[in-house]
Amino acid sequence: MATATLEPTVAQAALVEFLLRIGDNTLILGHRVSEWCGRGPALEEDIALANTALDLIGQTQLWLGLAGEVEGQGRSADDLAYLRDGYEFRNILLVERPNGDFGMTLMRQFVFDAWHYLLLKALEGSADRRIAEIAEKAFKEVSYHLDRSRDLVIRLGDGSAESHRRMQEALDDLWAFTGEMFVGDAADAALAEAGVIPEPQSLKVGWDEIVSDTLTEATLKPPADGYMHKGGRRGVHTEHLGYLLAEMQFLQRAYPGATW
Amino acid sequence: MSSEWPLWEVFIRGQHGLNHRHVGSLHAPDAEMAINNARDVYTRRNEGVSIWVVRSSDITASAPSEKGPLFDPSNSKVYRHPTFFDIPDEVGHM
Hints:
The complex is a heterodimer. By secondary structure, chain A is mainly α.
């Protein structure tokens, strides 16, 4: 990656933006997946989902922790997670989609994992050593997430008539939320220029490959690329995020500073 | 759902050099998923470096009712333990 020098304050603002985006993705998806706890279709799946949720929340601590550090306003990862309002969250809309049935949850996980895997792989070579180190740790976890969600998408897609129908419905429903992963803005461009992150668009080819190979094996039909929903990365969210935050943030809002 | 899946016995090797030990069982549709499930259920706290799974139905077990004939006869045979040798002092701790 190229190394260029950025005006320090621009670089800092862009870096905070990026760290919030990646940390909010793992936070919101981690919370969503944790909603399955105790409700999985089988004990083994329940535990596997809880493990995935915990991995994501663990990564959130690192990303948001670094975001607070770079921001330099004394905000901790917990402050960022529990004390921001909806419009301050930078996650993509895909991860705030409601869980739906098990097929919907898995399909959301799979399209996210394929992207997350490629992103972290690229971030392992980041010019910012702090980012490279977090990416290296998270990459191992996410490689397993992808193995697992990919395997289950294939099994259920190429399973019974009922499971095939549900997986196709999930795919059709979620497809319009996949485009946001590959759209960059000025902050992304500045960081990509400095070799800190990959251009979001650059991950599309690899993602297409993983997704189309998997869907073919799963006998599922990829929907045509039509209108893509966007906004989460700028803080413009769907109504679903508010309900999620109400539950996730309740305790810290009702009892500020509570610890246990 | 899980009642339709076969049961698998899970064996984990804790560290290199140790034997695999039976840690429990779980349900899974096939061997590959049984390994994945075992990873998620039994190695969350860094317990293992290797996993074996085997279908519970493939295990042949001794019958509890035969416990007497199988094991009692070895009860009172002290001569099967190597306790009747004098160990020379030079050998030290064995």
